[in-house]
Amino acid sequence: MRSAIINSGYEYPAKKITINLAPADLPKEGGRYDLPIAIALLAASEQLTANKLDEYELVGELALTGALRGVPGAISSATEAIKSGRKIIVAKDNEDEVGLINGEGCLIADHLQAVCAFLEGKHALEHPKPTNAVSRALQHDLSDVVGQEQGKRGLEITAAGGHNLLLIGPPGTGKTMLASRINGLLPDLSNEEALESAAILSLVNAESVQKQWRHRPFRSPHHSASLTAMVGGGAIPGPGEISLAHNGVLFLDELPEFERRTLDALREPIESGQIHLSRTRAKITYPARFQLVAAMNPSPTGHYQGNHNRCTPEQTLRYLNRLSGPFLDRFDLSLEIPLPPPGILSKTVVPGENSTTVKQRVMAARERQFKRQNKLNAWLDNPEIRQFCKLESEDAQWLEETLIHLGLSIRAWQRLLKVARTIADIDQSDIITRQHLQEAVSYRAIDRLLIHLQKLLT
Predict the structure, then answer these.
(1) Are β-strands 291-296 and 165-168 bridged in parallel, bridged antiparallel, or unpaired?
(2) Does the bond joining 23 to the residue before it have cis omega, within 30 degrees of 0?
(3) Are residues 84 and 219 in the same domain?
(4) For the segment 79-95, what is each residue's pLDDT rounded down to a tens digit?
(5) Can you say whether residue 323 is alpha, beta or left, with left for phi > 0 and alpha for psi between -120 and 50 degrees?
(6) Are residues 97 and 172 in the same domain?
(7) 7/9 Cα distance (integer angstroms)
(8) Residue 333 belongs to what H/E stretch?
(9) How far apart are CA 276 and CA 278, in angstroms?
(10) Cα torsion 321, 326, 327, 332: sign
(11) CB of 243 within 8 A of CB of 286?
(12) For residue 64, is it within any domain?
């Protein structure tokens, strides 16, 4: 601080200095307070006549030369300042980031001298140039997937209703390939969603904010990821993978290989759409409204039946027991992705529907949902399920008997209704029919697998 002030042509006050950062109970760290502290010192020592100081917020780190450096989270600071009717000055290093806001209340500077001259009315600061999103061509198209029509249908339903999806199958059947295509079926982020996602991403990687602008996040952490990496943490809690996936997709490949406590920690955020992090020095809530897509093998060797099976039912059940029942309940759909039938790879296969065609149906179904209830089906609460997912008495009785047969919970009942509602929306139907319910029940592969293994043991 002393060097920055002196190298900017000012004198450092030769007296005892007390700086109060209020409120005292909130932790402060990093260099983001360098600029406001330096300006406060110059104003208090009467070296700076800053009549406009009350109108501005200041964020920036100071180099020894007085040059301004960028700080993490500048887009969050700028957004909140503009919302509160104030203006903000940030470092030029953060120009690309804050330029996404297109707000007139944001100014950029590259040196402490420039900020001082502006506050004294001797110099004008520039507004950040509007930053456009980096366009990205669709790299993964649904038509690349050979066969697996049920998997494609499940992916369409998942995208249309905002549901959680579990893909089960032997190695090499296209589970990961299918999951990587879901972003091509989802709409671009709205302006509000884009700002939320950019604000979170800027806390960990500001350079990627422009590249990811308006693109749905797709996070795929390795199965060795720790609990802190997944949900967030640290002395001053930072966002984890579930928050970085906010408004997007969290893909967990090789699901049973994740630590059980890491997976169980996702249960509450999946329901509430946010994560509460409590530490000794701080308590922070981050948004975490994401779609969970996961892929797994049905057994340690990848197969649970046929010539490739090398596991007993006990070993397979022990493997599946790595996933708790309450966690599996969070999946709206679970699909089996089988090995392709013999000869399909050697035949000339007509490409299936591309992502653009399927996305049109997804967008139409989402439009029906927002028009009816102003939210996606996956986020309906209990009263809304009763209001928007009504069944005929015969259909309700059939569904209850089916759930009893499969041994499913009340939560599974609710999720089946929401999936059936999405299928009806894709079909442009105002009511949920028995056919929609039957299709929704068909997407319970994990339950059928567990029942099959239990029968083998009896």
Answers:
(1) parallel
(2) yes
(3) no
(4) 888 888 889 999 998 88
(5) beta
(6) no
(7) 5
(8) strand 333-336
(9) 6
(10) positive
(11) yes
(12) yes
Q: Indicate whether 226 belongs to any domain.
A: yes
The C-alpha atoms of residue 329 and residue 408 are separated, in whole angstroms, by 9
- Is residue 435 pLDDT above 90, yes or no? yes
CA 340 to chain centre: 32
What's the whole-model pTM score?
0.85
* φ, ψ (nearest 5 deg) of residue 385: -60, -45
Domains held by the chain: number? 2
pLDDT for 134 beyond 70: no
135 in a structural domain: no
CA angle, 339 as apex, 337 and 345 as ends, to 5°? Answer: 120
DSSP 8-state secondary structure symbol assigned to residue 142? G
CATH of the domain at 206: 3.40.50.300
Same domain, 238 and 366: yes
Q: Which domain holds residue 277?
A: 142-342+352-372
Average pLDDT over residues 285-297: 95
Structure tokens given for 419:
């999936």
CB 114 within 8 A of CB 47: no
CA dist 381 and 163 (Å) reads: 14
- Shared domain for 115 and 52, answered yes or no, is yes
CATH number at residue 93: 3.30.230.10
- Which of 183, 156, 181, 148 has the alpha carbon at shortest distance from 425? 156
Q: Where does residue 373 rank: exposed (0-12), middle (13-18), buried (19+ CB within 10 A)?
A: middle
Kindly state whether residues 106 and 153 are assigned to the same domain.
Answer: no
Q: Is 177 left (phi over 0), alpha (psi -120 to 50) or beta?
A: alpha
Q: Are residues 84 and 196 in the same domain?
A: no
Three-state SS at 356: helix
Q: Is residue 333 part of a domain?
A: yes
Where among 119, 134, 165 does a domain terminate?
119
Q: Based on the domain organization, do 95 and 174 belong to the same domain?
A: no
Burial class (CB in 10 A: 0-12, 13-18, 19+), 63: middle
Indicate the angle between helix axes 410-426 and 355-373, nearest 10 degrees. Answer: 110
pLDDT band at 408 (very low <50, low <70, confident <90, very high): confident
